[in-house]
Structure formats: structure tokens, C-alpha cells
Amino acid sequence: MAPIGVRATTGPPCGGSNDTGARDSSNALRLSTSGAVLAAAAAEDVEKEKAAHIEAMERKEAELVAEVAALTSRLAALARKENMPPPRGSATAPAIEPAPPVVLEAPATARLPAPPVHDKALSGGRAKLLRSILTPYLNKHAPDEANNVDAMILRVVGREADLTEEELFEDLEVAYGVRVDLDPHEP
After folding, report:
1. What are the structural domain ranges in the chain?
2. Which residues are CB-neighbours of 72 under 8 A, at least 6 positions away?
3. Of 7, 49, 55, 142, which is the most buried if we count CB atoms within 10 A?
């Protein structure tokens, strides 16, 4: 037991050296070195696993190629036995030539409908009135122009209108020789 007034210490006497700091740093060095060794070993293990996986995949690919070749030759043998054409891709298979393109010609009188025109002006009251006048007229006197009703209406009511209703009617009367009936629904 220490006398009264004197404190017991666990460290070295005053002015002496302390080994504790040196021991701690060497332990830390040993731990960091062992951590690096463990990390290197883990990386090596990963590389070994990767190489083993690649090797297994290459073996499997070689097996599949051999299996396909065997099946192709069996099919060719069966085809010869059954007097059938050999399978595609085999060495004895005839080359498959593409069929010539089929060209369908429409009759000269056939006409495709005009693509639909999406314009706000076509849904207005004036456009609907013009459509109700022009559709029966064109169906009767110029059926080949009946698909162009919306384009004609847009020339009168569209943003880039370049005709008045009267000018359109005059043009149609001159072209077809028949007066446009402004009330086609009247008996």
C-alpha cells in the first residue's frame, strides 16, 4: 500500500520511457498487414472462382455444339431414310431461295381514300354545311373526287383559305357542267 500523500501509478517512473505507445503501433501495423493479406487472399479466391466459372461455361458450350452437330447429322440420316429433304443448316441441305415479290396491281379506276385531315375548321358549322352540300354533288357527278371533300372545304374555311364558297361552286359547275344544289336534301 502506498503511504498517504503518494499516489500509486501504473506507468513508468517520471522521466522514464513508456513502451505502451510502441506496442500499440506495432499491433496496428500487424492488424493492417493481416487485413491486406486477407483482402489479397479474398481477391485471389474471387479470381479463381471466376476462372472456374468461365471454364465450366466453355465446357458446356463445347458440349452443346457437339450435341447440335450430332442432332443435325441424325436428322440428315432420317431424311435420307424417309426420302425427305435434309434439315436446314446441314451440309446437304439445298439453298433456300427467297420467293419473288408479289406485286398486286389495283384496277385503274380504284382510288385510295384521302388520308383523314385533322383540322379544327372541319368541325365548325360552316364546314358541316359545305360537306352536306358537296358530298352528294360529288358522289353523283364526280365520284372519283368524293374523297377530297375535306380538302375542298379547307380551301374555303381553313387557315389558308384561298376561295370563297361562291368561287368553289363556280369552279365545280364549270368542271362538271352541273349546277351545285345548295339544298340537296329538299325534295
Report:
1. 22-95, 120-176
2. 87, 89, 90
3. 142
